[in-house]
Write a structure and sequence with these properties.
Belongs to the aldehyde dehydrogenase family. GO terms for molecular function: succinate-semialdehyde dehydrogenase (NAD+) activity. It holds the Pfam family Aldedh. This is Succinate-semialdehyde dehydrogenase (NADP(+)). Keywords: Oxidoreductase. This protein is of the alpha/beta class. It has two domains: 270 residues, Aldehyde Dehydrogenase, Chain A, domain 1, CATH 3.40.605.10; 186 residues, 3-Layer(aba) Sandwich (Aldehyde Dehydrogenase, Chain A, domain 2). It is 41% helix and 21% strand. The strands form five sheets. It has a seven-stranded mixed beta sheet with strand order 12-13-14-11-10-16-17, sandwiched between helices. Helix 7 links the parallel strand 6 and strand 7. Helix 3 packs antiparallel against helix 5 and helix 8 packs parallel to helix 9. The longest helix is centred in the first third of the chain and has 21 residues. The radius of gyration is 23 Å and the shape is globular. The relative contact order is 0.13.
């Protein structure tokens, strides 16, 4: 690790004798550093300073905010190799995949640096000749976020960049498993000239304690959360007392559908990309596969061959494509899902082995039926259960049979079928002949119990702005 990596460890870490949070490499089970656990009084102090900083920041012209965000983006790109290494060491994903996340995360900073200058209002035709009506957009104020461990950089920039572009200040509670990436990306923001009280990372041994402060503090006017539906639901309830704005990106149970007219080779490539990225630890990854009868065996055979070729290991090592699960609880859950599915009648077509440490062999399960528990479970691991189907209408019913509605995917070469299926799927995002759908220019978000609000695209900055209506009379 070079400049930014060394600076991050120097600025963010503290000794194990302090009230510190240990950061552990999941591939080696070794401590790579410590971060401070702030007292609740310290977090309240951060919020007070953030409120002052926000007023000063909002008063600056949008072009100035845009210029600083652009410089932040440039520094992230310049330090992308170091940032990727930090991420792999603390999170476990392969180095090439970590580098991809850094570039992806940086794209939001660049996009919203441009959107900062486009927060347009409207002029409205008045109902009488002596009035003039218009709207303007203003920042909501102090915004806070709770971000997950599976994308420790991108889930911060996807929220922080629009908040700062809109004129908000931003306080993040990054996951205790992966805080060094958060500290590193924030250090680069400071180097770009973004005020330190404007963008702040806070951690505590108790994530619940930080969440309670974010939800109850009167000066925080917006909370953004990415995580489980269970936790998101609780945060919504807590925020209701002070009527905070919230946006929630919650759990998923994405169907991946292969129709009989699909390009099977392309479907297999998409399945690998969607299912096994980050060892299956993503909210939008394919969670259950539906394959039409006539191409079922062909798809399974090619899918098994492709999965068997994946290299499992420490993400720092060259050629590794599947890293470890994040912790022992995650591994226990994944192995438990495999065992339960087998007990309910599933067949292991490939994998299913405990590889030691936090590694699980990528797994394909066949003879899956809709009533099995694994079909309704967000697996969050490298396990692909495959279900046969016959008719399109049957498929739609099965695919929509979930409380979640985040991402979905299907492969077909028939235009009419593509439009019909896309419109019928009850999900916020649909990948058609594509296994990777996320980017900065498109709105990311779900429906049903996968949450509400959108990140990225032109809609992302509106999550951090309020519309004010102005009525001029006596004209």
């Amino acid at each position: 690790m070079d400049c930014i990596a060394n600076k991050t460890l120097l600025n963010a870490t503290c000794g194990p004798d302090d009230d510190a949070i240990a950061v552990i490499n999941p591939a080696t089970d070794t401590v790579i550093g410590y971060i401070p656990s702030l007292q609740t009084s310290d977090i309240h102090d951060v919020i007070e300073k953030s409120k002052v900083a926000q007023k000063l920041w909002a008063a600056r012209p949008a072009a100035e905010r845009a210029k600083l965000l652009t410089r932040w983006y440039e520094l992230v790109i310049e330090n992308s190799d170091d940032l990727a290494r930090i991420m792999t060491l603390e999170q476990g994903k392969p180095l090439t995949e970590a580098k991809g996340e850094i570039i992806y995360g940086a794209s939001f900073i660049q996009w919203f640096s441009e959107e900062a200058k486009r927060t347009y209002g409207d002029t409205i035709p008045a109902p009488t000749d002596n009035k003039r009506l218009m709207t303007i957009k203003q920042p909501v104020g102090v915004a806070a976020a709770i971000t997950p461990w599976n994308f420790p950089t991108a889930m911060i920039t996807r929220k922080a960049a629009p908040a700062l572009a809109a004129g908000c200040s931003f306080i993040t509670k990054p996951a205790n498993q992966t805080p060094l990436s958060a500290y590193a990306i924030t250090e680069l923001a400071y180097q770009a000239g973004i005020p330190q009280d404007l963008l702040v990372m806070v951690n505590n041994h108790s994530s619940v304690a930080v969440g309670d402060i974010f939800c109850s503090h009167p000066d925080i006017r917006k909370l953004s959360f990415t995580g489980s539906t269970q936790v998101g639901s609780q945060l919504i309830k807590q925020c209701a007392d002070s009527v905070k704005r919230t946006s929630m990106e919650l759990g998923g149970n994405a169907p991946f559908i292969v129709f009989d007219d699909a390009d099977i080779d392309e479907a297999v490539k998409g399945a690998i990309a969607s299912k096994f990225r980050n060892a299956g630890q993503t909210c939008v990854c394919a969670n259950r596969f539906y394959v039409q009868d006539s191409v079922y065996d062909q798809f399974v055979d090619k899918f098994v061959d492709a999965v068997a070729a994946l290299k499992v290991g420490n993400g720092i090592e060259p050629g590794v494509q599947i890293g470890p699960l994040v912790d022992s609880k995650a591994k226990e859950n994944v192995l438990g899902y495999i065992t339960q599915a087998k007990e309910q009648g599933a067949t292991v077509a490939y994998g299913g082995e405990d590889l030691g440490g936090l590694f699980v062999q990528p797994t394909i399960l066949t003879d899956i039926t809709q009533d099995m528990d694994i079909v309704q479970t967000e697996i969050f691991g490298p396990v692909a259960p495959i279900i046969r189907f016959s008719e399109d209408d049957e498929l739609i019913t099965k695919a929509n049979d979930t409380i979640y509605g985040l991402a979905s995917y299907f492969y077909t070469r028939t235009l009419n079928r593509a439009f019909h299926i896309a419109e019928q799927l009850e999900f916020g995002m649909v990948g058609i002949n594509e296994g990777i759908i996320s980017n900065e220019v498109a709105p990311f978000g779900g429906v049903k119990q996968s949450g509400f609000g959108r990140e990225g695209a032109k809609q992302g900055i509106d999550e951090y702005m309020s519309i004010k209506y102005l009525c001029f009379g006596g004209l």
